[in-house]
Design goal:
- It is an enzyme of class 1 (oxidoreductase).
- One of its GO terms (molecular function) is NAD binding.
- The structure is a single chain.
- Helix 4 links the parallel strand 7 and strand 8.
- Helices cover 36% and strands 23% of the residues.
- It is globular, with a radius of gyration of 19 Å.
- The chain is of the alpha/beta class.
- It starts with a strand and ends with a strand.
- The strands form 2 sheets. An 8-stranded parallel sheet has the order 9-8-7-10-11-14-12-13. A 7-stranded mixed sheet has the order 2-3-4-5-6-1-15.
Length: 325
């Protein structure tokens, strides 16, 4: 039998308090070479969007699987999310399919968790102001993760969106659900005057300019997830200490892909992976004045770590539907 789990089921089974440590642990395992993860495969659908296939195997939790996820930028105009995903989990020993689950909310939340883990290790310890450039689902999950990592230390959240009503809506939600002082701002430059900046947009030209960023800032660059996408001015990534989730993925489809293709960045100029920082193989922040950047491309192992946790809890709590396919 195969367990089917809906988005509603997943929201009942895990919270960001569970997801942040799961993602942190699997980043560490990746740095230590204890997982198997081929690069994600892109299927371009001209004029509409693309699909990505993301397989991996995490031996420590006995989970192998694949996420099949789309990115269709025009979907909101059709009443659909930009990103939708399905996750398949298999028994590594036999290959038997054991679970099919909705991966949309899980994708948003594991992405938020990655930003939270990066901020834990790379942001200044006294960080108290967060700037969000972008106001979609993943901007919200960034804040869920910062709430887990920093708690009441956060004093102000500034939200910028090209659509002011969206910024107002997200700021209101953050105030209502997390209790932070959250304000919509009219420009990205205002949001950039923060201790932690998250860029969560589909931009193909920079939305964050080097001159706007003060010394000591940490930046989570989340939105660039395909060749040609770029949220940070190249000058900013060149002068900052840049950490990635995966060098291979980031160099061709992450925030650094544009300056990399221009010859401005290479592997030797990177500060390391976030997993290497977690396990102590590479130093994280080394001063209160340096600018740090985390380039998050999204790894299949993040999905598998969280999906495994969801599946185990679903079995224990008898949640979901078993079907014979």
């Amino acid at each position: 039998m195969v367990r089917l789990l809906s988005d509603t089921d997943i929201k009942r089974l895990v919270t960001m308090n569970d997801i942040v440590p799961a993602v942190e642990n699997v980043f560490a395992e990746y740095a230590e070479g204890r997982v198997e993860m081929p690069s994600k495969i892109y299927l371009d659908i001209k004029g509409y969007g693309d699909f990505r296939a993301m397989p991996s195997y995490v031996p420590s939790i006995g989970t192998a699987g694949v996420k099949w996820v789309n990115v269709h930028p025009d979907n909101p105009s059709k009443g659909l999310p930009t990103v939708m995903a399905t996750i398949l989990l298999n028994d590594p020993e036999t290959g038997r399919l054991i679970c099919v689950m909705n991966g949309s909310t899980l994708t948003d939340e594991r992405t938020g968790a990655a930003g939270g883990v990066a901020a834990k290790y790379l942001a200044r310890k006294d960080s108290s102001v967060v700037g969000l450039i972008g106001s979609g689902h993943q901007a919200y999950t960034q804040m869920l993760a910062y709430n887990v990592v920093f708690g009441r230390q956060i004093k102000l959240v500034k939200v910028y969106s090209r659509h002011p009503e969206h910024a107002e809506a997200l700021a209101g939600r953050i105030r209502a659900e997390m209790g932070y002082d959250a304000q919509a701002v009219m420009t990205a430059q205002e949001a950039a005057d923060s201790d932690i900046i998250a860029t969560i947009t589909p931009a193909r030209r920079p939305v964050l300019i080097a001159d706007w960023v003060k010394p000591g800032t940490h930046i989570n660059a989340i939105g660039a997830d395909a060749p040609g996408k770029q949220e940070l001015e190249s000058m900013l990534t060149v002068k900052a200490r840049v950490f990635v989730d995966s060098v291979e993925q980031a160099s061709h489809s992450g925030e650094i892909n544009v300056p990399w293709s221009q010859g401005l960045l290479n592997k030797d100029k990177l500060a390391g992976t976030i997993g290497e920082v977690i396990v102590g193989m590479m130093p994280g922040r080394t001063s209160d004045r340096e600018i740090t950047v985390f380039d998050s491309t999204g790894l299949s192992i993040q999905d598998m770590a969280v999906a495994h946790l969801v599946y185990e809890r679903a079995l224990k709590e008898h949640i979901g539907t078993d079907v014979n396919i």
